[in-house]
What we know:
This protein is mainly alpha-helical and 348 residues long. It has a domain at 195-277. Helix content is 70%, strand content 0%. It has helices at residues 2-13, 19-27, 33-39, 43-46, 55-74, 79-88, 90-105, 110-115, 128-132, 137-145, 150-163, 166-192, 194-218, 223-228, 239-246, 251-256, 262-265, 272-291, 297-323, 328-334. The longest helix is centred in the middle third of the chain and has 27 residues, at 166-192. Residues 340-348 have low confidence and may be disordered.
Amino acid sequence: MTAYLNTRVSLYSGRLWQPADFDAVLAIPDAEMADALGSRGLPQLSAGFDRHQDHRSLEQRIIAELLDETTVLIRPLTGAARAFLLYWTVRFEVSNVKTLLRGKMTGERPAALINRLTPMGAFGRLDVQDLAHAEDLAELLRRLEAGPYAGIVRQARRAFEEGQDPFILDAALDRGYYEGLARRAQPLENEAGASFRRLMGTLIDRINLVWMLRYRFNYNLPPAQVYYLLVASRYNLPSSRLRELAALGSAEAVLDALPEPLRGILRDAAGIADVFARMEMNGAEVAAKVLHSGAPAISRAFAYLILRERDLRSVRAILRGRHLDLPTEDIRLAMFQPEEFPAVASTH
């Protein structure tokens, strides 16, 4: 298992883009885009490239690429390692859960709703036909609670019922997903050691801090509710510290109270978007170090998937920018902006 996975990850790492790749694709004419994408490891995006292609189609092709690569990486895995990487793809199905819930709230027709869902292929566990045809929101929630994501949905439904706020429903779904990810990571942190823990720590710390700042100071939620919506953590920002930070009165006070190395990374950060960008860059640097080290194979595989997804988000920004006829400099600014893949965390 280890030899196969390490070999596959090493081969896949050649698909990761360098700054020169982004510069080249930004500069080429539309007629050369398909060849450029294909030669840089994105055949699914190069096929039938059209600068005016449907936005949803672009999103689905990118997710299909991630799922295809994950299929290969999990092939030799068993036990906790396989369960973890499989659950990593559940983010995209949680996005479908959100789409179903929003569609039911607005009375969207089942056929139109199904058309907006991301195809999950072999990774799909939801019966989307059945769910889309639920009579109303209450019935949809009941059906979801009888399905594979019952734990995530049950907690979100309880939070939603207190205030009937769709934002809280989304936030609670996100929290439930990431708490499930953290649980599945714990045995791997014990087995794979510091490298896997560093990857998870940069991810969960970033999610919690950015969510806290958004919920507390953009949406003015009270500290107790903010804390409730954060992911239980054992990393640089453990739950006890998160509770203290959520009670502070300003974003500046929160950043000043952070422990090192986060305080140094975020010194003089210009707003929440800058906090996200800096923490994501730090996470990418950690992932690159793990990928190119002698870390256990599962750590290297997870590091690759983190970096590959970051690349694809930047490619997506380029193609969207072309679609909107944006100037190159505006596209560059959008390439690493704080937007996660749909839809976990991206709605907040």
